[in-house]
User: Which sequence fits this backbone?
């Protein structure tokens, strides 16, 4: 005989939407939240044994058209929503929006975890996102969030919620980078942030490279997070992004690698950014975004099967 087992310890996941494209060149990422609301995301997470549901959906004040001014007030709103979610005992899954949302996401995680120690962050991205206003070639905010979180850049962003760096360089690893300017690479090298680029991943293999990346972020006492910019994927697997870069991670390989994260109680938050539905083809990017979230959060078919208990 079989019966469904009661599971009071189901992992709670709250999905927070950031309906914004103000930080990037192509504002199409504003449609990511609606695109993923209309996907199999919640169904997939629940089928994998998680208590998953949508929480707050945030959007910037449309009264200002100046990105810096808008993001100055919007980033703390994101941060407070993430903080509330984490302090309520749920794992935040933040769906951007362009990757400038990371300023708010990880400032909120930092605030929620201050009593536990520093937080590590695995930054999976084709780009380094480590410009400051002084070094940026474009002035676009989505090229600055990692530098801001490390305490470098515009005070409006570095001081989001609290006037201090939100990340320590020794607990950060950038994974999959292949398109960036010398100035941002120089900043990360000066700070001691480990960058595992695509050339190295291809040489060493994704398994060994990902193991090293996880070891770096897992060393943080306060747990760790993962942020995935979908342009980290090869454009064959993720056409639906604003700034594709050739030669990226294959989706299947990254989904498999993230299964290690899904089995790890140290994960405190997940962020997926830069889905651009207007550039997608046949929903392939959306499908891979759902698969990446499911893997990183531990929503697997095998876990779903473990909810059925056989009774003699």
Assistant:
């Amino acid at each position: 005989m079989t019966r469904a087992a009661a599971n009071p310890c189901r992992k709670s996941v709250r999905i927070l939407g950031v309906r914004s494209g103000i930080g990037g060149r192509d504002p199409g990422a504003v449609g990511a939240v609606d695109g993923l609301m209309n996907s199999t995301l919640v169904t997939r997470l629940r089928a994998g044994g998680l208590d998953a549901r949508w929480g707050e959906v945030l959007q910037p004040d449309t009264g200002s058209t100046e990105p810096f001014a808008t993001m100055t007030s919007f980033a703390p709103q994101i941060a407070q929503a993430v903080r509330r979610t984490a302090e309520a005992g749920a794992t935040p899954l933040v769906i951007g929006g362009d990757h400038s949302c990371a300023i708010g996401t990880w400032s909120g995680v930092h605030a929620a975890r201050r009593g536990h120690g520093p937080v590590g962050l695995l930054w999976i991205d084709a780009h380094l996102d480590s410009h400051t206003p002084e070094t940026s070639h474009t002035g676009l905010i989505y090229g600055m969030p990692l530098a801001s979180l490390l305490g470098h850049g515009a005070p409006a962003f570095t001081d989001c919620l609290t006037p201090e760096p939100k990340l320590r360089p020794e607990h950060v690893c950038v994974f999959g980078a292949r398109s960036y300017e010398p100035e941002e690479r120089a900043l990360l090298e000066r700070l001691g942030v480990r960058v595992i680029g695509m050339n190295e991943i291809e040489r060493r293999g994704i398994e060994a490279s990902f193991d090293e990346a996880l070891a770096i972020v897992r060393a943080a006492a306060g747990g760790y997070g993962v942020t995935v910019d979908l342009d980290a994927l090869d454009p064959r697997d993720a056409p639906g992004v604003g700034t594709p870069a050739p030669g990226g991670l294959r989706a299947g390989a990254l989904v498999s690698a993230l299964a290690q994260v899904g089995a790890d109680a140290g994960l405190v938050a997940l962020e997926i950014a830069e889905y651009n539905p207007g550039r997608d083809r046949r929903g392939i990017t959306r499908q891979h975004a759902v698969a990446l979230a499911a893997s990183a959060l531990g929503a697997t078919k095998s876990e779903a099967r473990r909810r059925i208990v056989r009774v003699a």
User: Anything to note?
Assistant: Confidence is low (pLDDT under 50) at residues 1-8, 302-312.
